[in-house]
Request: fold
Amino acid sequence: MVEILEKAFKELKLPYNKETEEKFILYKDLLKEWNKKINITSIEDDEEIYLKHFIDSLLLLNENNVSEHKTLIDVGTGGGFPGLPLKIVNDNYKITLLDSLRKRMDFLAEVVKALNLKDVDLIHGRAEDYGQNKKYRECYDICVSRAVAPLNVLSEYCIPFVKVGGYFAAYKSDNISQEILNSDNAIKKLGGKIKEIKEISLPGTDIIRKIVIIEKIEPTHTRYPRKAGKPGKDPIK
Reply:
């Protein structure tokens, strides 16, 4: 099974070594163990975990940015995706993992400790609340999210965390044309601009993934994000 990792790393032109391999194996084992107790993922097969969680998370990286020193927040991180795989491969990242479920944060705390990862901040809470907190608002070079939400909703959760000049990377499936159209005005109101839509094949599969790169070009108005629950119930038009 581990060969899948090595082949994918080679295809993505990312550095691969025994330490990286061992960390991903341990992460996978802990994920399967905890998944018996709490609902983290519906994916339980080893190969699928490697591909659809770990490798998928790494699609943002390439040979040019794999060693960059940046601050990064993962909003709605769930089982730690994509934030922790990005940190495992690029230890220079200083990352924050944010999720609203306490049990998931307990799981992530164990993973971070077991993998001996440094510069990882775990936050239990809602993006709407922390996006208004001066300690976190507009403090990050990069925000990432694989959370299942429309892009206009996800943008309100995520763009407020990003510094002007930084970017928000939204991991999406292949068919997002209408979602992009529906999100254009929201992204502008939040101070962002779509810079690029990366289309990437998940190595070893015929699955196409898209990563929407939204550049932060001006500060987000203080009215955003709105109170908890509001972005999902009444998305920015």
Observations:
- The two ends are 45 Å apart (CA to CA).
- Residues 203 and 230 are 37 Å apart (CA to CA).
- The domain at 2-233 is CATH 3.40.50.150 (Rossmann fold).
- The mean pLDDT is 96.
